[in-house]
Amino acid sequence: MNAIVNEKDEMIMKLVHYFVTEEDYTPINVQGAKDEIWLENLNGPYKIIRINSKYIHNNEQLDFDLFKMNFVIKQIKKKTLSFKMNVLNICLDMGNSVKLDNIPNNIQTLNIPSINELKKNKVMKELFPKIKNMIFKSNESLKSFEEIIHITDDINSKTEKENKKYEQVFKPKKIIITKVLIALCLIMYIVSLFVSDSFDNALVILGANNRGLVLNGEVFRLIAASFLHGNLIHLIVNMYSLWIIGSQVENYIGRWKFLIIYLLSALMGNLMSMVFLGEYSLSIGASGAIFGLMGSLLYFGYHYRLYLSNALTSQIIPIIIINLILGFTISGIDNAAHIGGLIGGYLATMIVGIKYKSNKSELINGLIVYIVLAAFLVFAAVKFA
User: Taking the model in full, what pTM does it have?
Assistant: First the structure.
């Protein structure tokens, strides 16, 4: 029986099927691209794979094709916040006179006109060892609509599963922990109004951060201070920020992971603050933990930058920068707590992990760095005491 598709179309179908179902690449839409397919996996051996079925008959046409490719790659780099991007350019129809010299270092270009050439290609076999089981296991061509439908269904099924994962991460969820944290801060503010004749004394009693008291064993202050506020405006500003930022982090990352991130951010922020506090100075407020939530969004946004790239560059990063600048220019703001919280939140999110994105090495690295940094800050606080 004769094949119902030509060899070039068969190669395209089999390659796309393999990269999507086995190597977790995702098809991306490139405006104006004809006779070419672009696939993306930011964790793959090549972040971008392009399958090009256009006929390239000489080196001048190849140079122009690479020029256009570089333009598209720059757009993808900008969207994905990538400084470097290695690309695999698979050409299926290239003239015999074309020489693959002077190719940009970031673009690995292969001339693979047939299945037999694909079998022989060392780059493909070394980087994608599973390909031999998917494409090379049979010499038979696609001979029926059932085989084509099977391949198409596999690709659609894989894409549908990935879409469901992203839908699960981003769909609105009931916010609980953020509300509980806000309620605790409100309660502690009310309590602080009545616990002593002096408001400052009440803050000390309830757990304001102070280097000497913490080093004397009152370590509960490293968390308690994040639930205390100096006045009503301080409280309102922080609770509004906590609601806006906290509800997003809780929605994306999950309730209990969010709580861990919040507490670890508060701890790191207060440790950093303790190092730079004067001997008799007090530090209070949820802003260190809130900066930790910004750090968490930064980590989350980077891993889901294909979906949040605009929000990451136009909202999250500018908000962090503006608030840090305000902290350095306005007196009375504990910027050390903000910076510590920001770092703590980023590391805490590494520790608890992001659904469908994190791996064990990231979790371990985050935990090690967090512990080392916390130990260093304790050591520095003792040295300054």
Answer: 0.78
